[in-house]
Write a sequence for this structure.
């Protein structure tokens, strides 16, 4: 297994600064972003670092899956480095970041290749990384192989300005509603989906509620004589 | 946003978008309606219909008694839990997720907590006793969820005795939940790092008693329904979905197992120490509602076996929270004069003797703990199928994103495949055999 996994076993959370991807920075010591900071630590700056690209060997069956996938893509005359932007191994999970134009082919390969055989897709989860400029919207797929008992993650990204991702409904019909949900909440447009309409929100709803720039809303309430502000207005520490 | 393909013209005002609907070409609509078969009608079943399991809306195109097209309308119970989670700290998250699929609160909580623990990297440090109690509560919860499924499913067929029996037995289980967690539903008892607290005094005796009663009551369903010719006639070959259909539509749980595949995450991808328990995964090869009913019955028996093994292991005392004081919620709950709150012992400790405990309490309650940036996926086998949680942290005290892959949501997609071409009355049976809970579907 990777170094990170080894360090996780002795009870210390794995270090995040080694080879990670800095997304943004945080200021101050306690993360309070409203109200004055009287601690004197207001000038502290910390980085928010996501796990970065991993290098071989990935450990366990991860290498086998990566080899098979790369081999199968090569057979289809697709250069693996064009399709797979990076591979991340973190917390015992394998993530392939896929270029969106190749997502459909990669997913089909993962499903059909006998050595891979990821038959079950558990749907798509959208994530909106406001600070990840040029790749704000992420679509995250978890694929499960019942044949081999494995689970991997595919991640594709699209910029806010062009939120298009190919639909996987033709490969995994189960993604029908999941993609509608991700469209409804994040505005990700899945090209090729048979009927991409809102699924949870009313049809005439404006905006995409789970984007980070969409406010939560809410009203202040009175409790035991005190005014409690709306959840997104409360004092918070990040 | 792209403009919707509607004929109504729209203009933006300060009040929002105003649509102007003018007279459509109604002659054409009327003519096409006249031309088609008289028997062809479109029926809206729900969202307020007792047999659609909550606010599920079924849009059925019916030709005589045959359903030619079936569609689901969902979203009537959407409460924005996933968005709300991003504005609360990690521990408060359990209070929200427990309300998703309200019939399986412990599964929601455990799946969420497993995800958070994976992000924290403390999966190995969860005390054994906490995992055993999690398993115990989940298996009892599986019983109560299946009982509701069988009870409401029976009622929809007109079998009111099954309904009375099912809710009678579920009530016994909810009593045990109330004794252990203080609440019948929406417990928020499983917390990141372990549990809110240990089993209360008297819980073991009560659970032994419950086990005995359930062992006596479960065969009654067998006697009532399994061999009943009317019951069988209504259930057999109804809601048919074979293995190919299940895999394509991502159906899991009893729906998948009724197609003959013994896929159960407790066996294939164990969590909470399920690999150390002795139990079977029942399957059927009928692909129909009756097979799903039999599977649920057998799963309840297996759950009782697991509960029994849990009780045996729980004889050994131990911690129910991780040792790390920067994660473990410090307070113990107790009932005071003004309701449930922090126990007096804990307040005495933090105010009188331990300044460090006071600091930990203060920091955890006001800020919460920080979770290293990254993402994780945790999945548990809920009574309905694979309940997956995708959690993303940006290193802060609040979740950056939590997504629940609810099995009801995914399985409900199979409704059309099960119902089209069948009878209207069979739609009810098919939907009941999926066992969708709208709280989980809509979240």
């Amino acid at each position: 297994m990777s170094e990170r996994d080894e360090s996780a076993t002795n009870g210390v959370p794995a270090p995040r600064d080694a080879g990670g991807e800095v997304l943004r920075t945080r200021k101050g010591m306690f993360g309070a972003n409203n109200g004055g900071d009287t601690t004197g630590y207001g000038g502290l700056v910390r980085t928010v670092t996501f796990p970065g690209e991993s290098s071989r060997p990935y450990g366990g069956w991860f290498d086998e899956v990566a080899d098979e996938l790369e081999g199968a893509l090569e057979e289809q005359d697709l250069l693996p480095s064009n399709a797979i932007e990076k591979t991340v191994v973190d917390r015992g999970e394998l993530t392939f970041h896929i270029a969106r134009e190749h997502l459909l082919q990669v997913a089909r390969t993962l499903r059909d290749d006998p050595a891979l055989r990821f038959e079950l897709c558990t749907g798509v989860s959208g994530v909106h990384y406001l600070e990840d400029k040029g790749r704000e919207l992420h679509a995250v797929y978890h694929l499960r192989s019942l044949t081999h008992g494995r689970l991997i993650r595919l991640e594709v990204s699209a910029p806010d300005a062009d939120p298009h991702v190919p639909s996987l409904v033709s490969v995994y019909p189960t993604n029908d509603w999941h993609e509608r949900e991700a469209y409804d909440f994040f505005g990700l447009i899945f090209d090729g989906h048979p009927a991409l309409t809102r699924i949870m929100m009313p049809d005439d709803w404006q905006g995409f509620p789970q984007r980070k720039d969409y406010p939560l809303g809410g009203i202040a309430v009175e409790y035991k004589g005190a005014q409690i502000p709306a959840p997104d207005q409360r004092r918070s520490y990040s | 946003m792209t403009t919707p393909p509607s004929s109504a013209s729209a203009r933006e005002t300060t009040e929002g978008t105003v649509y102007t609907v003018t007279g459509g070409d109604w002659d054409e609509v009327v003519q096409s309606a006249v031309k088609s078969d008289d028997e062809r009608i479109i029926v809206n079943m729900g969202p307020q219909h007792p047999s659609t399991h909550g606010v599920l809306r079924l849009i059925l195109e019916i030709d005589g008694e045959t359903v030619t097209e079936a569609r689901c309308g969902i979203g009537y119970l959407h409460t924005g839990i996933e968005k709300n989670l991003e504005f609360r700290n990690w521990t408060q998250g359990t209070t929200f997720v427990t309300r998703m699929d309200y019939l399986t609160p412990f599964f929601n909580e455990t799946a969420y907590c497993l995800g958070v623990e994976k992000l924290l990297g403390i999966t190995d440090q969860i005390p054994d006793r906490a995992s055993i109690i999690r398993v115990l509560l989940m298996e009892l919860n599986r019983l109560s969820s299946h009982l509701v499924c069988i009870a409401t499913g029976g009622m929809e067929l007109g079998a009111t005795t099954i309904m009375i029996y099912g809710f009678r037995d579920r009530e016994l289980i909810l009593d045990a939940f109330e004794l252990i967690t203080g609440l019948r539903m929406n417990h928020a008892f499983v917390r990141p790092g372990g549990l809110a607290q240990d089993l209360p005094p008297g819980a073991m005796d009560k659970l032994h008693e419950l086990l005995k009663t359930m062992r006596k009551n479960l065969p009654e369903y067998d006697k009532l329904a399994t061999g009943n010719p009317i019951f069988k006639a209504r259930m057999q070959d109804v809601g048919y979905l074979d293995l190919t259909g299940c895999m394509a539509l991502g159906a899991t749980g009893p729906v998948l197992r009724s197609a003959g595949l013994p896929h159960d995450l407790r066996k294939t991808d164990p969590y909470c120490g399920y690999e150390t328990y002795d139990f079977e995964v029942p399957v059927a090869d009928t692909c129909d509602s009756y097979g799903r009913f039999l599977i649920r019955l057998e799963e309840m028996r297996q759950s009782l076996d697991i509960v029994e093994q849990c009780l045996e292991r729980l004889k050994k005392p131990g911690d129910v929270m991780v040792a790390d004081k920067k994660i473990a919620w410090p307070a113990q709950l107790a009932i005071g004069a003004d309701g449930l709150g922090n126990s007096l012992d804990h307040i005495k400790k933090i105010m009188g003797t331990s300044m460090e405990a006071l600091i930990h309490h203060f920091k955890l309650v006001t800020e919460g703990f920080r979770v290293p940036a990254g993402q994780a996926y945790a999945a548990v086998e809920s009574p309905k199928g694979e309940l997956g949680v995708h959690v993303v942290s940006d290193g802060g005290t609040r979740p950056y994103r939590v997504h629940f892959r609810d099995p009801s949501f995914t399985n409900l997609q199979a409704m059309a495949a099960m119902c089209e071409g069948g009878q209207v009355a069979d739609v009810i049976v098919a939907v009941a055999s999926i066992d969708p809970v709208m709280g989980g579907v809509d979240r």
